[in-house]
Amino acid sequence: MTNDLDTLATALYARIDDELKASPWLAPWRPAVGIAPTLSDAELVTLAVTSALLGYTSERRWLRRVGRDFGHLFPYVPQQSGYNKRLRAASSLLTSMIRILARDTSLWSDDVWLVDSTPVGCGCSRETATRSDLAGWAQYGYCASHSRYFWGLRLHLVCTPGGLPVLFALTGAKADERETLRDMLDTAPDVEAARPGQTIIGDKNTHLFKPLRQVIESINQTFKGQLDLERHGGKSPTGVAARILCRILALTAAIWHNDKTGQPIKRSLTAYDH
Q: Among 6, 73, 204, 255, which residue's Cβ finds the most Cβ atoms within 10 Å?
């Protein structure tokens, strides 16, 4: 099996389609009576992941590119408004596929997890902070790694040392990291119960984390430098959540595909970003 974007997109589409056939409740809700969408849910999610891997932050520009260069993968391209609406409604499917793909990798069995958070900026002006639909969720916070204040959210991640996302949460910038970790574990009791004795290392002045500081910074940089985490473009809570989930799924899908094709570096996106 080759290791390129077309192959990843095809494999991801087939996997999502199979999961939806086996577990139809994973699909976004829609009326029992009505016109079936021309773009399937599997195609929608694959389209969003491909966009994230190629670094598109504008949905309009991406959909124009799809119609021009990716017709062999996506014969039907919706309008931007319809695409955006369906993507926001597919958040639960995105979340489910992140977990399903992660479990289907060799990295899932790692007995050490790393936990950290990274800023997700949502605006730069005082006017944005007071008038945005994100006001009340997004907050002013401080990023010690870059010695800067920001207005926005924090993405909390529990990852393997190889960068595979295990658990994640999106909170206000001032949320306590330890409390958020406890909440993430509480909301995924099946994950915690299946891993008795799991080692979780966090960055709270512990000597155990110092050798791994570069590892977690590298994982965060993959999200920010290659998947444009802070250029998500979301203007509402559902919009931001969907776009962040697309980026987490994009990284998970790349690791899953690299693992299945026997690549030495599981977190490499080089084969998929052009």
A: 255
- What CA–CA distance (Å, rounded) separates 77 from 44? 9
The CA distance from 117 to 165, in Å, is 12
Q: For residue 201, is pLDDT > 90? A: no
- The answer for residues whose C-beta is within 8 angstroms of residue 256's C-beta and 6 or more apart is 101, 102, 104, 105
On the question of pLDDT at 114 being above 60, the answer is: yes
Greatest Cα pair distance in the chain: 59
Task: State the Cα–Cα distance between residues 134 and 82, nearest whole angstrom.
Answer: 22
Contacts of 155 (CB under 8 A, 6+ apart): 117, 118, 120, 168, 169, 170, 223, 229, 244
Per-residue CA distances from 271 to 5, 7, 152 (Å): 7, 10, 31
* Residue 4: how many other CB atoms lie within 10 Å: 13
pTM: 0.93
- According to DSSP, residue 138 is labeled B
